[in-house]
Amino acid sequence: MASSTSLDLTRTYLDLQDGGKVAEIPVTDTFWQDLMSGGVRIEGRMVMAAEMTADMGHWEMHPAGDEVLILMNGRAIVVLEEPEGTREIAVAAGETVIVPRGRWHRVKVVEPGKMVFMTAGEGTEHKPLEDAS
């Protein structure tokens, strides 16, 4: 059951499930390993926030759906891997980027801030930066 208190999306992620249910997912030290191994399942769309103080050290891709990135404060660059090469999208506080399903992407920090991610997380893949096209 979802709580009726305020939550910090950097410490408790949300799973927006079919039928309108919202499940809370406590963030542990092993959350990402558990998610990648199937130990944690997201039934709908995961909503989370992260303090963005450094560039993402890898590429990621979400085959189950588009990802919505909302920059709450700071400045960033969303890098998309496209057939003709990489494309960079500058993002300012309050702006949103929609990353298409199946598109490799990463975030570079221009000015530290907080970003909210809404992700169809099932099947998410990561790859090292040197594997970029």
Radius of gyration: 15 Å
Q: What percentage of residues falls in helices of 4 or more residues? A: under 10%
Number of strands: 11
Strand ordering within the main sheet: 2-1-3-10-5-8
- As residue ranges, the low-confidence spans are none
Number of alpha- plus pi-helical segments: 1
Structural class assignment:
mainly beta
CATH superfamily: Jelly Rolls
Q: For this structure, what is the CATH class?
A: Mainly Beta
Identify the CATH architecture: Sandwich
The biggest beta sheet is recorded as:
6 strands, antiparallel
Q: Strand-and-helix sequence, N→C?
A: EEHEEEEEEEEE
What's the average pLDDT? Answer: 90
Overall tally of domains: 1
Within the CATH hierarchy, at the fold level, what is the topology?
Answer: Jelly Rolls
Concise structural overview:
With 133 residues, this protein is mainly beta. Helix content is 5%, strand content 49%.
